[in-house]
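ERR on first pass: missing label on line 2. Operator R.T. fixed the label and resubmitted. Corrected input:
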Amino acid sequence: MYDRDIRKDEEMKKLLIEKAVEKLPNSFAPYSHYNVAAAALFDSGEIYTGVNVESSLLGLTICAERNAIFHAVAEGEKKLLAVAIVGGIDGKRTEYCVPCGACRQVMRDFGDKDSMIVLSAKTPEDYQENTLEELLPFSFGPESI
Amino acid sequence: MYDRDIRKDEEMKKLLIEKAVEKLPNSFAPYSHYNVAAAALFDSGEIYTGVNVESSLLGLTICAERNAIFHAVAEGEKKLLAVAIVGGIDGKRTEYCVPCGACRQVMRDFGDKDSMIVLSAKTPEDYQENTLEELLPFSFGPESI
Amino acid sequence: MYDRDIRKDEEMKKLLIEKAVEKLPNSFAPYSHYNVAAAALFDSGEIYTGVNVESSLLGLTICAERNAIFHAVAEGEKKLLAVAIVGGIDGKRTEYCVPCGACRQVMRDFGDKDSMIVLSAKTPEDYQENTLEELLPFSFGPESI
Amino acid sequence: MYDRDIRKDEEMKKLLIEKAVEKLPNSFAPYSHYNVAAAALFDSGEIYTGVNVESSLLGLTICAERNAIFHAVAEGEKKLLAVAIVGGIDGKRTEYCVPCGACRQVMRDFGDKDSMIVLSAKTPEDYQENTLEELLPFSFGPESI
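pass 2 clean. output:
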């Protein structure tokens, strides 16, 4: 179990970003050439990674963040604590990649909106940090259904 | 052309909500029984409507807001000014329906984040109003690609 | 009501293809430059059209066929009889556009697999015709849930 | 590397189905209660698993097959050889689960349509086998773009 406060755990934040950076070469983006990788921490303490995978039928493309989260759930995880995101055109990490609206919505299914954090990173030392509530205010989630 | 400021045009806001309410009976939600309808105003002055349509393959379900926007683009529209949303379980309008993250992201493709508004409504007189920027802060859109 | 057998109604097939061709200029495909339009006949006798609409978040892209079908349902339709599809790179109709797997699945929700037809067309006189069953054999649909 | 012909490798087929069955308890389907798991063999010889994960925003739901494939690509895989699928209401394996059209389309991005196989299984001994071409005839894929 991970029983610390991720918002204050600088070491874990760095580790998450490093894990995302490691996977970036696997990003499969032959159409947009916009490569993205993500690493997601769950309350078990395990870290799961994903990359964006583009389909020739563009609308079936998956983002890195959802790829990581869906895989984690397939491994039995339920409670999402943090997601780190890195990427850019041709894998050059020149911007802070923020999650798209669809990924923010899926984070809402598995993360607590006030304590879950998203790290949009260039390097393990250079990132922007937001809570899910900051990224998806006025939201609805599983409690609404 | 619609050349007014939608944020100050109370008459148009009411009309949008009324148009959404009119379509609500067409919502096709046999699995969730959560019925939603939307009306979207474009800069031509035309209003387009949509409802949520659920597929038996749940992941192919479309929301009311995107249904309205995608149809509008098919009719030649490009610039989205406002979207009104109504709905609830069994079509009962007991809550203010906010757009999901995926719909917010698609709004970002066709709307100006600072001036475009979303009306989450119960009745033409009872609604919450937000700019797209308020609903999807720290966003990216077509300008990033 | 449309009470003829679409498989034998050459006039209606031509009309569907013409309606799709007319909408092709509205296709919004700034990323792939692969433009597609579709026209869908429902049992009311009404024809609904759609185009592909690409999102800067590629995975939120919608196909022409689903755009037409979802709009039709929003207008109260339930029973899909036929879909005509036209398109190609830069809107040049040099190939027979077949529907993607996701669109075939959504057709399955509203069409009868043995009698519904898909027309993949270059011109109103030059098209390939398939039943939904031919395009999506061994399928499941709303009856399975 | 896996250098055998999967269509004749009964042992591997059984193993794939067993791997899918093992993951079935992780299926997250709180809305449909239709649980599905999949196992995918790539040409490296590695097997990747996935389950369906439903979102409270139904349209963001992912199928088991795509979950497995997208994760495999994130791990560096490119060439898909076979997918086994198991599942049913409340996880009871009383039917042969076929892949939806969207999953068939994504298989088309990574599998050879004539040699790739899909196993719709109840048990390791009781399954239906189809090539991708049988499941998605008249298809298009990455070669078309």
